[in-house]
Amino acid sequence: MKDELLDRILGTEEELVPSSGFAASVMERIREEAVAPRPIPFPWKQAVPGIVLAVGVFGWGAVELTRQVVSAAHHASSISLHFPASMLRPVEGIGWVAIALGASLASWLLSRFMIADSRLL
Amino acid sequence: MSTTAKSATDDLADVERVLSGDAAAFEGIVRRWQGPLVNMAWRYCRDRARAEELAQEAFVRAWRGLGQWRRESSFSTWLFALAANVFRSDLKRVPTVNIPIDDIVEPSQPASQADELQRKLRYEVVRRAVLALPLRYREPVLLFYFHEMDVAATARTMGLAEGTVKARLSRARELLRRRFPHLADEHAAMELSASTTGKEA
Fold this sequence. Notes:
The structure holds two protein chains of two kinds. By secondary structure, chain A is mostly helical. Chain A contains four helices and no strands.
């Protein structure tokens, strides 16, 4: 099939005329949209300090954890002391507990801050 | 003033009125663009009722996002690009019911199909075959013919480079040619038959 023929077939579509009530039905929806209350935007202004705090806590936790792991590995290789796994496990757990507590605190502070600021209560 | 220029002026005036709080001014936009948008949607789905639903959705999205129209491009360019996004997303969500392009059979016996109705039916098969193309090739074809074979307008509506649109069009044509290898011969036979009949009359 040549391009000219394809152009002829696809380029000569019959024009569709919108139904008589089409414009009215669109305008009805537009009027509904116009009177509907605007959606409440997300309170970015109030949320940003909380987000920054949470990111900071998580970042700090990650950095601390990495630092401790690196230093522990370095220490272990230099003095060739080997602790049994049962002794190291609680130390690792402390890091995770600290991160969880930090995140909870940040979340609690953020929710308090947002509620107080939006005067919902 | 040309029709296009007048339409652009009217669009701008209506947009300004809508943005200043006059929702009724949007009706001017709807009346001017309902035909093109319904026809554009029709090419995407070939279902009249669905085409009107899609066009309505495009108008509502345009209403919501009217403030985002930067005056750098014409209102129609912005509206068509927005509508294409709406149609594309909706058709990804609920695809049109069509058969794979490899399953479309080219009708045989051209000599017996030399009347107008048969020709129309055969052309409709080709048009529907476009819907069976992969989306990346289908959309340039739909928009290219909607924009009266204007590659630049097609590229603007799709937000693609003209070269990309040309390459995809070429690939789409190749796929269609492969699917309908005998259509050109049959078309020539029909033309010859029509001209012979004309001369005899």
